[in-house]
């Protein structure tokens, strides 16, 4: 089975070649869904100027080459091609899609090794809402690439190194390892950091000890490293609670924090300097990738070794990109990081290309993540101005979902499972339903609504289909049709479902999961119309129609559940 729009593109391109010559075979037919037919091709409008012929005449020449097309092609207006597919073609393709274990989703050709850098909380502080979007978007893309047959290498680039760890380790010694571990595992990383920082700012002896501890940490002193591991392991155990709550696929094996690159930094700088890419500037070792200037029109530096000999983010990112290309053998590297880092990553990629560390065969992309806003349109924070703790936000989503379903007659265990699925689905879908580089307002009332383009609406659509099969006493897998399209609502739903595989491919190519969300929402909306207009189990529906509509229900369910799973949105059987 093939997406109708892809089929039409290929057929119209062949018609262009036949009508006007092979040099026109690659022209974009400009095929779009239409309210006057299934699709409309607008290529004749632009091609008319190129051919110096009237667009309507061009359109007719194309239509003449589509005589054997499985449907009708009509020239409309000044030169539009209105294309309506034959119901028999749609039926055959939908039936084939139902029989396909992959529901129309192909596999990557050739499969790639995709490295995805996402989540990346700072171990020195609490995991807050700023990490939510990078985690959700990155995990959805990891799921999608794996489903398409690519090898995904997850990289959780934790902030687990640097000068703050001197005071954090000293504070651990002051309060005792047991108390520190308990506080960190309980998700009180921010409070822990603030207490250490307060001592650092007010106690000179603590400040001195903290700075000395940074030196022993950087030198690899065994006892300091042991204490660092105690701190990190407790922090990671808490991060894992958040990941488990969210249902993301990151594990400890995916951790590749800043500390991992320590041993590479000196060689990174030496190699860049030896090849003449890095030069000394005002005591610091800098990269000056071409095309970047500051407000003073002077070349903008990317500092890889500071004047005091220390290293920073640029040093680590240059080492990381080299490692990901040379050691991880990446074909594609995605950095799912806040949009405010756009300039930094453009410079890193340009510098890596300049050094020959990022060859043309490897794609490095910054998947920009927009800011989460509160209802006041400002950065999402608590009333006191603090960053909102992610775990508290997620728990509130579950609690609110529990209130919504409280009167639906479920036992406590079932209610808890559904509330968790609805709460997490609401939060994740709200994020994935908009473009990742857009800002969006975090609003529980909107995202937990059972109407509109929301997670609960999508989950309810799948639950409603499953309830149809429970009433029929059948498993969805047993519905085989054959599919017969006798009513416009049936035809519209079946035609739409055929585009599923192409949308997943498009999401993978463009790294835009919101396109899949939009497709699934349209699927649920079309199914709602179908459900209202096409009785499935009602008395009086003949056996053939019943079998056809059950098959269409089963195909819709497969598309919805597969799509939501690719996005990482949980799907409860009941709502």
Can you give a write-up of this model?
The chain is α/β, with parallel strands linked by helices and 575 residues long. The protein has helices at residues 4-20, 43-51, 55-64, 87-99, 132-147, 164-175, 177-185, 189-202, 204-218, 222-246, 262-274, 313-326, 342-355, 390-404, 412-432, 444-447, 455-472, 488-497, 500-510, 514-533, 543-567, and strands at residues 31-33, 39-41, 71-76, 80-85, 113-117, 151-155, 278-281, 284-287, 302-305, 332-338, 363-369, 372-373, 440-441. Helix 6 (164-175) packs across helix 9 and helix 19 (500-510) packs antiparallel against helix 20 (514-533). The two termini are 32 Å apart.
Give me some keywords for this one.
575 residues; alpha/beta; four-stranded antiparallel β-sheet; four-stranded parallel β-sheet; 21 helices; 13 strands
Gap from first CA to last CA: 32 Å
Average pLDDT for all residues: 94
Q: Would you count the extended β strands for me?
A: 13
Helix content: 40-55%
Low-confidence stretches: none
Structural class: alpha/beta
Dominant shape? globular
Largest sheet: 4 strands, antiparallel
Task: Give the topology, please.
Blueprint: H1 4-20, E1 31-33, E2 39-41, H2 43-51, H3 55-64, E3 71-76, E4 80-85, H4 87-99, E5 113-117, H5 132-147, E6 151-155, H6 164-175, H7 177-185, H8 189-202, H9 204-218, H10 222-246, H11 262-274, E7 278-281, E8 284-287, E9 302-305, H12 313-326, E10 332-338, H13 342-355, E11 363-369, E12 372-373, H14 390-404, H15 412-432, E13 440-441, H16 444-447, H17 455-472, H18 488-497, H19 500-510, H20 514-533, H21 543-567
Parallel strand pairs: 5-6, 5-10, 10-11, 12-13
Antiparallel strand pairs: 1-2, 2-4, 3-4, 7-8, 8-9
Helix pairs in contact: 1-3, 2-3, 4-18, 4-21, 6-7, 6-8, 6-9, 6-10, 7-10, 8-9, 11-12, 12-13, 14-15, 17-20, 17-21, 18-20, 18-21, 19-20, 20-21
């Amino acid at each position: 089975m093939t997406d109708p729009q892809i089929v039409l593109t290929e057929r119209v391109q062949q018609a262009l070649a036949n009508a006007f010559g092979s040099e026109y075979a690659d022209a974009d037919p400009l095929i779009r869904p239409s309210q006057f037919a299934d699709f409309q091709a607008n290529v004749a409008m632009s091609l008319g100027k190129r051919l110096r012929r009237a667009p309507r005449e061009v359109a007719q020449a194309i239509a003449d080459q589509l005589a054997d097309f499985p449907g009708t092609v009509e020239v409309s207006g000044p030169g539009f091609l209105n294309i309506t597919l034959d119901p028999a073609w749609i039926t055959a393709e939908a039936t084939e899609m139902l029989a396909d274990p992959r529901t129309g989703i192909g596999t990557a050709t050739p499969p790639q090794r995709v490295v995805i850098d996402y989540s990346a909380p700072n171990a020195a502080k609490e995991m807050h809402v700023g990490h939510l979007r990078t985690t959700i978007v990155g995990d959805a893309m990891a799921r999608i690439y794996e489903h398409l047959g690519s090898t995904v290498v997850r990289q959780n680039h934790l902030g687990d190194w640097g000068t703050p760890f001197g005071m954090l380790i000293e504070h651990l010694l002051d309060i005792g390892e047991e108390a520190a571990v308990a506080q960190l595992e309980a998700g009180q990383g921010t409070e822990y950091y603030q207490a250490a920082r307060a001592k650092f700012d007010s106690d000179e002896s603590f400040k001195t000890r903290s700075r000395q501890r940074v030196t022993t940490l950087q030198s690899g002193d065994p006892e300091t490293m042991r204490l660092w591991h105690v701190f990190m392991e407790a922090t990671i155990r808490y991060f894992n609670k958040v990941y488990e709550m969210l249902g993301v696929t990151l594990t400890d094996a995916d951790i590749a924090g800043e500390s991992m690159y320590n041993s590479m930094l000196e060689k990174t700088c030496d190699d860049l300097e030896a090849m003449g890419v890095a030069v000394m500037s005002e005591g610091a070792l800098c990269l000056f990738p071409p095309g970047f200037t500051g407000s003073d029109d002077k070349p903008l530096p990317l500092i890889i070794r500071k004047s005091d000999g220390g290293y920073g983010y640029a040093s680590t990112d240059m080492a990381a990109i080299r490692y990901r290309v040379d050691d991880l053998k990446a074909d594609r590297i995605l950095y799912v990081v806040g949009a405010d880092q756009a300039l930094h990553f453009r410079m890193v990629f340009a510098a890596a290309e300049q050094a020959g560390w990022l060859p043309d065969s490897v794609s490095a992309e910054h998947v920009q993540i927009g800011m989460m806003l509160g209802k006041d349109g400002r950065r999402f924070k608590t009333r006191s101005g603090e960053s909102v703790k992610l775990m508290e936000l997620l728990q509130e989503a579950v609690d609110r979902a529990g209130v919504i379903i409280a009167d639906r007659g479920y036992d406590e265990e079932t209610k808890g499972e559904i509330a968790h699925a609805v709460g997490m689905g609401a939060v994740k879908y709200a994020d994935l339903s908009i473009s990742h580089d857009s800002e969006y307002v975090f609003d529980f009332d909107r995202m937990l609504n059972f109407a509109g383009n929301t997670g609960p609406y999508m989950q309810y659509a799948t639950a409603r289909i499953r309830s149809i099969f429970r009433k029929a006493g059948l498993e969805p897998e047993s519905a085989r049709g054959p599919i017969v399209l006798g009513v416009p609502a049936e035809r519209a739903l079946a035609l739409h479902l055929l585009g599923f595989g192409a949308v997943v491919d498009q999401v993978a190519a463009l790294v835009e999961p919101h396109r899949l969300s939009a497709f699934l929402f349209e699927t649920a909306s079309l199914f709602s119309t179908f459900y209202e207009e096409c009785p499935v189990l009602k008395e009086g529906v003949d056996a053939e129609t019943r079998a056809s509509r059950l098959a269409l229900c089963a195909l819709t369910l497969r598309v919805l559940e597969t799509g939501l799973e690719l996005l990482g949105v949980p799907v409860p059987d009941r709502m």
